[in-house]
Amino acid sequence: MEMAVIGAVILVLYGIIPTLQPSNFGRVYAAYGGIFIIMALVWGWQIDKIIPDRFEIIGAVIALIGVFIIMYWPKELTYFCSNFKKKFIHIFL
Known about the structure:
Layout: H1 2-16, H2 25-46, H3 54-72, H4 75-92
Helix pairs in contact: 2-3
């Protein structure tokens, strides 16, 4: 029973914390998705005693790399790419 309460509190905090971030909500929420994958593996490993296999670990590392790309990719470059795409579409369409 106590584990269910702990799980419920963590789930509620997981849903509330992204809304308190000053950054772009979409980026923060996508990053939380990657963190959720890591935490799900850790929970299974530590609480349920299910050891993740190498492919689950590789997938989690890929998700974590995605988190870093989403959160820390230079926004100036993203702006440049967005403008380039608009100009490219305008020229050829």
